[in-house]
Structure to design on (65 residues):
């Protein structure tokens, strides 16, 4: 039983695409922003509004340099 959970966790992570992982991270960030006040909330949310495609484009541009 102790070994079953880590194996299932690894299978779940490997089964997810990078886009799904990015989406889940975005959702987690948005959730963490919800407890902030209005002006802080807007700033917080603006940091995490890139689409996956925009994120990968920016990332690849950074890696090329």
């Amino acid at each position: 039983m102790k070994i079953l959970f880590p194996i299932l966790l690894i299978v779940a992570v490997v089964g997810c695409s990078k886009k799904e992982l990015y989406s889940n991270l975005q959702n987690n960030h948005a959730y963490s922003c919800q407890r902030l006040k209005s002006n802080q909330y807007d700033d917080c949310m603006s940091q995490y509004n890139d689409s996956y495609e925009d994120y990968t484009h920016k990332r690849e541009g950074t890696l090329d340099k």
Remarks:
- Residues 17-64 form one domain.
